[in-house]
UniProtKB/TrEMBL annotation:
Key words, A-Z: Signal
Signal peptide start and end residues: 1-20
Domain DUF1549: 159-373
Protein name: PSD1 and planctomycete cytochrome C domain-containing protein
InterPro entries, sorted: Cyt_c-like_dom_sf (IPR036909), Cyt_c_Planctomycete-type (IPR011429), DUF1549 (IPR011444), DUF1553 (IPR022655)
Any one Gene Ontology molecular-function term assigned to this protein's record: heme binding
Residue ranges of domain Cytochrome C Planctomycete-type in the record: 38-93
Record-linked PANTHER family: CYCLOINULO-OLIGOSACCHARIDE FRUCTANOTRANSFERASE-RELATED, F-BOX DOMAIN-CONTAINING PROTEIN
Domain of life where this protein originates: Bacteria
Species this chain originates from: Blastopirellula sediminis
Domain (DUF1553): residue spans on this chain: 561-823
Length: 871
């Protein structure tokens, strides 16, 4: 009988002879199956189950406790096939191989169980990454590709068009015609600002003979303060922005989270280079130059930027079932946010075991976690309140101390006057009792209540009117009590002039405190194993040659690990960051990314539809100085972006998902754009920027609405007048994880658990019902109608024409005018017959039939697909 050693030698020789042949190979066809289903027990652990290691073919031939696992060329006689077919292995029913996977294993064995190349002599403790894994597109260096030549060069405005057109032409197609000026203007405004366009923008584009007019409009909108509100909201999605802690049903408030939101909006508006944006969010605390107890305004912004690392759900400020688990959950969610937003990888899948599909080991996960451990330190944890940093400066403290001294002078005057009034009142009451009791009464009054003798206590029981105090003075002398109250209010008013104590929600490290990071066996913090030092991903290091993250910075009081990570991620040699960001930008402009799985560039994610274009965009982004507005201009000035909605049957049959970009996508407005557009059209939008979140609350029927309940009123439904704050843009509305705004939730505003990788618009009956019955929409429609009547008091036709321009962003057609006029007239006549719209004596109706019928028309327009979708 052939020994295992001889069999292994023969197999190695056989593999060498078959090298480079076009066959089923272990590395390309089978290893991924075993990695997914089997490596967890047969390769990853220090002790492999049954003595069988499936990471190398040689070891399969050598076999384990039950003998050789495979016999090359004989799948039916191979033990591994027997175990797989009997479903004995894997033992977990949910991890069984699919029929297709099992067929691949059998075919590979039948073909000789070949490998693509000679296997390594040893693996050791080092995580094995194959050449196939290293060759995955996402790990290749970013290189600017040559711009392809195309047949229809006249359709190319910039290189973006050339890359897209080259693929279309390959399949016999071209770009769709350019969209009309009104549709393009509306699309551009909603894309960059999240608001409907101003009427003059369309008029200028339609009438101008300047070929650069479109580019000027793009620049104008990029300079708008509303740009940062729109594109900042996109980033807040992937950052998991929320104004509440989540994690448990308590969902405690985050009263200062808004500073991070405002930082993001300002960064986009100011055109901050994106590599700097990343550095400040990951390590703003390591960039500050002023002390934490006397921060400059610039350093306050840097600390606010680290709110990016404080957005994950965090229940450690209250009672939780397992406090240590809650701490580690917060760290894990933070790592998920960082890796999904900046690298587009599913790093969290390696928290409990080696990644089942991508070349990411569990050790890689914990090395990456080690970068953040000095700031989080789960064994010396700081809860959310302990992480707040006061914004009081030395000048504030000095001013507060001076004001307090003034207030103390007033306090002393109040105390002296109070003493005087109390003594005078006591003397008045003393005169009402017999003179022989005066001496005892005076002694009792002068003594502390706790030290009075029984005799002294007794006199107060017999004559309670002698027990004059600050709290009872008003019973004897209301005028004196009022005077004291006025004097005390003066002291309070002085104290109220102190600089207000504000805070920033930030992440910081304690200098000199660097915890040890250990790998958690199967992700369980109670089972720590080997110590690990900080590092990026092994696959990135092997593919790019980037240096590792240092254990400690030599020129910072803190570890410097997060600052090193920021430099590492924004190094031009890093293959993931620029691709990930550009893919997201493309997704928001076109409705789908060049990689349609924006947080998964791995094996299970989709391959890029235009890999050369993605690399060109990433290279251009880096070479532009990470200039986001520059990339916007390139995309928005391309002919590809300015196409009309695709309407080509032949192209649709060949490319049903529009991955070739042979026309624009019909896209529904997201929740924020719907609400903000309604407020704009009704003329109510409050343009105020920044500051604390506008609160939300449940209304009388349990829906979550914008507002603040008046708890002092004592009556359900009583709300505080928001003084127009409730009419601000949606980005400023409080994001409570447990109380999403009902209207926004209906239109798919995402839950931050922990973040949102991609908005997924739905279509359902609830949306139509809300647009039909929503009190908010009815109110917006009435306000819009009132505005139209005020603008055109004597011309009903012009009201209708203006309504079309404001809601749809286009001129009304003649047949639509006639239909709308007939509709308004019919509704008016109907309303005139209803009591609510008839005068009661000399009292006119609350709303006239004419105004209400126009409001109904506005509601119809605002509920229509043409309003809710962008063409």
């Amino acid at each position: 009988m052939m020994s295992r050693g001889i069999a292994a030698a023969l197999l190695i020789a056989f593999v060498g002879n078959c090298y480079a042949q076009d066959e089923f190979h272990f590395e390309t066809d089978v290893r991924g199956i075993f990695k997914k289903h089997c490596f967890h027990c047969h390769g990853e652990e220090e002790t492999v189950e049954g003595g069988l290691d499936l990471r190398l073919v040689r070891r399969m031939v050598e076999g384990g406790d039950s003998g050789s696992a495979i016999i090359a060329g004989k799948p039916d006689e191979s033990l591994i096939v027997e175990r797989l077919e009997s479903r004995e292995m894997p033992p977990d029913e949910s991890k069984q191989l699919s029929p297709d996977e099992l067929a691949k294993v059998k075919r590979w064995i039948a073909g000789g169980a070949t490998t693509a190349r000679p296997e390594p002599e040893t693996i050791g403790s080092e995580y094995l990454i194959t050449d196939e894994e290293r060759s995955h597109w996402a790990y290749q260096p970013i290189k600017r590709p040559e711009v392809p030549a195309v047949q229809h060069a006249e359709s190319v405005a910039n290189p973006i068009d050339a890359f897209l057109l080259a693929k279309l032409e390959k399949h016999g197609h071209q770009f769709s015609p350019k969209g009309t000026p009104d549709r393009l203007t509306r699309r551009l405004s909603l894309d960059l600002l999240g608001l409907p366009p101003e009427e003059e923008w369309t008029a200028e584009l339609q009438t101008s003979e300047d070929p650069a007019q479109w580019s000027k409009l793009v620049d104008q909108l990029l300079a708008s303060p509303h740009y940062g509100e729109r594109w900042g909201r996109h980033w807040l999605d992937v950052a998991g922005y929320a104004d509440s802690e989540g994690y448990s049903d308590v969902d405690a408030d985050r009263p200062y989270a808004w500073r991070y939101r405002d930082y993001v909006i300002r960064a986009f508006n100011e055109g901050m280079p994106f590599n700097q944006f990343i550095r400040e969010q990951l390590a703003g605390d390591e960039l500050i130059s002023s002390p934490l107890n006397d921060l400059s305004l610039q350093d306050v912004e840097l600390l606010a930027a680290t709110g990016f690392l404080r957005m994950a759900p965090d229940g450690t400020g209250g009672a939780v079932d397992d406090a240590q688990q809650a701490r580690n959950d917060t760290i894990a969610d933070t790592i998920h946010i960082v890796s999904s937003s900046l690298m587009s990888i599913t790093l969290s899948c390696a928290q409990c075991h080696d990644h089942r599909y991508d070349p990411i080991s569990q050790a890689d996960y914990f090395r990456f976690r080690a970068i953040f451990d000095p700031a989080f330190d789960w064994q010396k944890w700081k809860n959310p309140k302990q992480r707040l940093i006061s914004l009081y400066t030395d000048d504030d403290r000095k001013a507060a101390a001076e004001i307090e001294e003034k207030a103390k002078v007033l306090d002393a005057a109040v105390a002296e006057k109070r003493k005087e009034f109390i003594q005078k009142t006591f003397d008045e009451q003393l005169a009402k009792i017999p003179a022989e009791m005066h001496e005892l009464a005076r002694a009792a009054f002068a003594a502390d209540a706790k030290t009075r003798t029984p005799e002294q206590k007794d006199i107060f029981k017999k004559h309670p009117n002698l027990n004059v105090s600050a709290g009872s003075l008003y019973l004897y002398n209301q005028k004196a009590a009022d005077e004291l109250k006025k004097m005390q209010q003066e002291a309070t008013d002085v104290r109220n002039t102190k600089p207000k104590q504000e805070y920033v929600r930030a992440l910081t490290e304690t200098p000199g405190q660097i915890p040890t990071t250990r790998l958690f066996y199967r992700g369980d913090y109670a089972q720590p194993k080997q110590e690990l030092t900080p590092a990026g991903l092994s696959i990135v290091r092997q593919a790019s040659g980037l240096p590792e993250i240092p254990v400690r910075s030599s020129n910072l009081p803190t570890s410097g690990r997060r600052l090193a990570l920021a430099d590492y991620l924004t190094d031009p040699k890093h293959p993931l960051t620029a691709r990930a960001i550009m893919n997201r930008v493309w997704m928001h402009h076109f409705g789908a990314g060049l990689v349609t799985t924006p947080t998964d560039f791995g094996v299970l994610g989709d391959a890029p539809t235009h890999p050369e274009l993605l690399d060109w965009l990433a290279a251009e982004f880096i070479e532009s100085g990470w200039d986001m507005k520059h990339m916007h201009r390139l995309i928005l000035n391309s002919n590809a972006w300015r196409q009309e909605v695709r309407n080509n049957t032949a192209l649709q049959e060949q490319d049903p998902d529009n991955h070739w970009y042979g026309g624009a996508r019909l896209r529904r407005l997201d929740a924020e754009a719907i609400r903000d557009s309604l407020l704009t059209i009704s003329g109510e939008l409050n343009p105020k920027q920044f500051g604390p979140a506008v609160p939300v609350m449940p209304d009388v029927v349990g829906r979550i609405v914008v507002g603040q309940e008046n708890t002092d009123a004592g009556r359900p439904g009583q709300v505080i007048d928001m003084k127009g704050e409730d009419l601000r843009r949606s980005v400023y509305i409080q994001v409570r994880r447990s109380q999403p705004l009902s209207m926004m939730e209906t239109f798919d505003q995402p839950a931050m658990s922990p973040n949102c990788d991609q908005r997924r618009p739905s279509t359902n009956a609830t949306q139509s019902l809300m647009m039909l019955n929503s009190v908010e929409l009815i109110d917006r429609s009435r306000k819009a109608a009132a505005k139209l009547i005020k603008e055109f008091p004597e011309d009903s036709k012009r009201r209708i024409e203006s309504a079309w321009r404001q809601v749809y962003g286009r001129a009304i057609e003649e047949e639509e005018v006639a239909g709308a006029q007939a509709f308004v007239q019919q509704v008016t006549e109907n309303l005139k017959t209803q009591a609510d719209y008839q005068a009661k004596g000399d009292k006119p109706p609350a709303r006239s039939p004419d105004e209400e019928s126009l409001a109904v028309l506005c509601q119809v327009l605002l509920s229509s697909n043409e309003f809710l979708y962008v063409q």
